[in-house]
Specification:
mainly alpha, 11 helices, about 60% helix, globular, binds heme C
């Protein structure tokens, strides 16, 4: 890698980190984005979450089609896209490892969903708006993001990358008007 590219990347990373901090300081949170599977699961588990129920779900092994049917039977208020998002989250992330499933704070220990991952991993080096929220990609094209030289070193596990890709293919792009004005850059 040339020094020029290195400096450019560092500049991008520093600028992105500042942008990210500015967005958080402005009180932005990812609530404007479609819910991911973790958020939908917690909604389904009630408030406060029924931990026994959550544990049963977290330890189950089903195919994605079976998960879709399970979710549709349990959560009647979800849209078709939300059911697809939840079924994809289940299929990618479950069953959880035994030690995680047994934790008393299981609700907090659930794997990050696509929305969490996009919000936390994608705005350090460039804006979320142009590089994520407005991107219209098929599933494989989302997976391919991780093949670019500048993305290869991202610290996301294979499971997180797949969760991110599945969520994004279902829920992106967002409509311009649904993104808070101070994030449209
Ligand atoms: C370590 C810094 C870094 C992080 C973190 C990062 N990117 Fe990038 N990204 C870059 C750089 C550098 C480029 C190329 C120059 C540019 O377009 O700004 C780029 C370009 C892109 C592009 C346009 C080129 C392409 O590959 O199609 C997209 C889309 C993109 N990033 C999406 C993402 C998403 C989604 C995430 C989170 C999963 C992410 N980026 C996280 C550094 C980063």
């Amino acid at each position: 890698m040339s020094a020029r590219v290195g400096r450019g990347r560092l500049f991008a990373a520093v600028t992105g980190a500042l942008v990210f901090l500015a967005a958080q300081a402005a009180g932005e949170d990812p609530g404007f984005m479609p819910k991911g599977g973790r958020a939908l699961l917690l909604e389904m588990a009630g408030s406060p979450p029924d931990i026994g129920e959550l544990r049963k779900i977290a330890q189950a092994r089903r195919t994605e089609v079976e998960w879709r049917g399970f979710a549709a039977a349990r959560a009647k208020n979800l849209s078709g896209r939300e059911l697809d998002t939840l079924a994809a989250y289940f299929a990618v992330n479950l069953p959880l490892a035994e030690d995680v499933a047994q934790r008393g704070d299981l609700a907090k220990a659930l794997p990050a969903d696509g929305r969490d991952l996009a919000w936390n991993q994608c705005q350090f080096c460039h804006s979320l708006f142009t590089s994520y929220l407005t991107q219209d990609r098929e599933l494989q094209a989302w997976r391919n993001i991780f093949l670019s030289p500048f993305h290869r070193e991202m610290k996301m596990s294979p499971q997180e990358r797949e969760e991110f890709a599945r969520y994004s293919a279902l829920n992106m792009p967002m409509k311009f008007d649904d993104v808070p004005p101070d994030l449209r850059f």
